[in-house]
Design goal:
The chain is mainly beta. It has one domain: Jelly Rolls, CATH 2.60.120. It contains three helices and 18 strands. Strands 2, 3, 6, 7, 8, 11, 13, 16 and 18 form a nine-stranded mixed β-sheet that branches. β6 and β7 form a beta hairpin. The longest helix is centred in the N-terminal third of the chain and has 4 residues. It is globular and about 45 Å long. The N terminus is likely disordered. Bound molecules: calcium ion. The site of calcium ion has 8 residues, from loops.
């Protein structure tokens, strides 16, 4: 297996950020809040656990099709890709997506044709369009600011996926195609939620109907607002 490493600065070439697409999925509610610099109450990358699923407010799983009940991943793989930890339904990260992976290092890790920065989780859909999902469940009722990014991680394909943000499995707040490498899409929105409400960050295999080379990065933070 051919592997190589790249620096974080390489991945986040400032020139690429010029093309950053900022999408507000509820601009009137989110635009003022996004300027806050307080530490997030919840952070999908920072809070990741390879030990527990569910993991506090976060859970990792798959569904087919989108909107179906979430099947929690029960299998872990911490050895196939050095530095990556992954949750799966079965098997190993190289062969058996859907999966959710985490970079356990402080460097961008590259394997085969994909790279995972330490600031993103890696989501990969399955061959039969099993949708890979990171779910946040509201622990209390309140208003919550969600902010984050989604990005294609595969430079060889490149990534061709569909990305969705779905409230309570039936209300799609955002959907879009991720068909390029390293050009993050930024999202933010403030939502009033009741305890137990769920917000899914979901990746399917996209419009080409193929799951190959479909690694997709997500980073989302949640902060309770007054
Ligand atoms: Ca695809």
């Amino acid at each position: 297996m051919k592997t190589k490493s790249a620096s974080r600065s390489t991945f986040f070439n400032p020139l690429l950020l010029i093309g950053l697409v900022v999408l507000l999925f509820f601009p009137q509610a989110g635009s003022a809040q996004v300027q806050r610099t307080v530490t997030a109450d919840y952070d999908a990358v920072r809070d990741f656990s390879i030990i527990s699923n569910p993991n506090g407010a976060w859970s990792y799983g798959w569904m087919s099709p989108l909107g179906s009940p979430l099947n929690l991943y029960t299998v872990t793989d911490t050895t196939t890709f050095n530095g990556l930890s992954g949750w799966l339904e079965t098997g190993m990260m190289m062969y058996a997506p859907p999966l959710v992976g985490h970079n356990d290092t402080q460097q961008v890790l590259c394997f085969l044709s994909f790279c995972v920065p330490p600031t993103y989780l890696q989501l990969h859909p399955g061959p039969n369009n099993e949708v890979s999902v990171v779910r946040w469940t509201a622990p209390t009722s309140g208003s919550f600011l969600f902010q984050g990014r989604v990005v294609g991680l595969d430079h060889g394909g490149p990534t061709t996926t569909g990305f969705y943000v779905v409230l309570n499995s039936n209300n799609t707040l955002f959907s879009g195609n991720i068909n390029v490498y390293k050009s993050p899409v930024s999202l933010h929105r403030t939502l009033a939620m009741s305890a137990g409400d769920t917000l899914d960050f979901a990746v399917d295999f996209g419009q080409n109907g193929n799951y190959n080379a479909d690694s997709t990065g997500i980073q989302f933070k949640v902060t309770q607002v007054q």
